[in-house]
Every structure is written in C-alpha cells, then in structure tokens.
Design brief:
Helices cover about 15% and strands about 10% of the residues. The protein is mostly loops and about 160 residues long. The chain has one domain (about 5-110). Strands 1-3-2 form a 3-stranded antiparallel β-sheet, with no helix packed on it. A two-stranded antiparallel sheet has the order 4-5.
C-alpha cells in the first residue's frame, strides 16, 4: 500500500502556503527556492499559485486524487511539513479533511493506514532437558505447597 498522500495532493491545491521569507534565503539556512515564491507582506512569502481563487502550488506535480506529489518534498516549506494527513499518527487532521473534501475526495480514516508490522527477532530454541530419576526424587523431597487451580482449588 502506498502512502495516501501520493494519490492525493489536495492540500497543495486548497490552502495558501505562506511562510517567513527567511526560508528562501540560503545564507540564513533557507532551502525553499525563492523563484517558486511571491511576496505576501514584509515578513512572509507564498508559494506561487496558492494565492488565486483556485489555488495550486507551483511545486505540486501530478493529478489531484490520482497521483500527485511535492516536487520539492525534501526542501518544502515548514508550513507544509507541519500538515499531517488524517490518522497517519493516530489523530484527525482538519486541514487534510478540508482539502480532500474540496476536491471531491473522502476524508482519510484509520483504515487507510496499514497496521505497522514490528519485526520481532526469533528467540533461540531451548532444548527440553529430561528429568532423570534422581532429579525427580530431589523434587519429591522438597516441602512445596500443593499446586492449586483457580480459586485455590487443589489440582
């Protein structure tokens, strides 16, 4: 099963993607390509294409609801990194649901996420040791309380 975002892209074509201009300045550690942004106000820029009545981020590649992905995923703006798909981490995301519904897609549910499989290392087999007659005699000579079943009933 592939990640649900790879067949969605709705959030990239629903919200205005605004963030601090410093994320586009390499000298300040910014990684978002400045040529993909427009000035919003003295402190913020937006991803091109997200300020229109029908927003679509310039970095979105593919067809919404079919096969879509962020063309700058490893260096996407912080605001994009903060959007969580609904139920990926066990919690609902109103942002994800709004974007999906606006594009005619159903909201994600917990069933859209595979149950994580955590590999458990195999335990080494321990051979059964036979009890010889002297060991049984030693055990028989111990003053042990009688074995009981549930509710203290002797077995």
């Amino acid at each position: 099963m592939s990640h649900p975002c790879l067949s969605c892209g709705a959030c990239c074509a629903f919200f205005r993607i605004a963030f601090h201009w410093s994320e586009t300045d390499p000298s300040l550690g910014g990684t978002v390509p400045a040529e993909l942004t427009e000035k919003l106000d003295p402190h913020r820029v937006v991803m091109r294409g997200t300020q229109s009545k029908t927003p679509r981020c310039v970095a979105l590649v593919g067809e919404i609801g079919v096969a879509a992905h962020c063309g700058i995923h490893p260096i996407k703006p912080s605001v994009c990194r903060e959007v969580e798909p609904s139920w990926e981490f066990g919690r609902h995301s109103l942002q994800c649901d709004k974007g999906r519904i606006a594009h005619g897609l159903l909201p994600l549910t917990p069933a859209d996420w595979p149950t994580p499989v955590i590999p458990v290392p195999a335990l080494p087999l321990v051979p059964e040791l036979p009890l010889d007659e002297p060991a049984i005699a030693v055990l028989a000579g111990l003053d042990l309380p009688p074995a009981t079943g549930g509710a203290g009933i002797p077995v």
